[in-house]
Amino acid sequence: MRRSLVVGNWKMNGSRSANRELLKQLLSAESSGSDVAVCPPAIYLSEVAEQLGGSSIGWGVQNLSEADSGAYTGEISAAMVADLGCKFAIVGHSERRTLYAETDSLVASKALQASAAGVVPIVCVGETFEQRNAEQTLQVVGRQLRALLEHEQFGELGEWVVAYEPVWAIGTGLTATPAQAQAVHAFIRGELAAVSQSLADKVRILYGGSVKAANAVELFAETDIDGGLVGGASLDGSEFIAICRAAG
Ligand code: PGA
What we know:
The chain is α/β, with parallel strands linked by helices.
């Protein structure tokens, strides 16, 4: 039985005072029965870690470097991420893939880097609007996933999470219907099962793309949807708490 997981991706939003208020609200809510984590901008991690330390809410990063250390101006290493007590690292978010030209193989390297440092990678996959219309969804998602599954170091990967995020649903208010999302989640589970059934049984597959309190219950009711990766709605304390409850 997989425990559900809800992760808030704050993206490039927040301030020290706004973060404190938001976290205060999350900490005051009763446990939702699901695993919960937030991924703030990295510059706020120390403070977020301090505020959340000792609670059941985890924290993570939105991105990390594929390199170990050294002359990589502006980058953050997996060891640093682990040093800050991060449980999760989002890798391959579509905004990184599109705006920063991250390739499938770079994303796989980042996932392995996180894992080697003891941080659980959340590997994002998903198709664009044009790809869905051209009926290429499974082909695209399969390709993104296989870059990791076929990586020579894949066997060294510890716990990891997949997030299916259709690009056309991110920040647009358009959500995949539960049936549309479930179809892709089942496909992902099948690809994992082709590698190993125990892997398929254990990897949590999150849905992301305009998840809100109003649509969370029906999305999370689907067999292969194990929780959500939440952007916009994770910045609103009561919305995010309601989404966590829907998953719990
Ligand atoms: P959204 O973002 O919930 O605002 O659509 C999700 C994401 O980008 O992870």
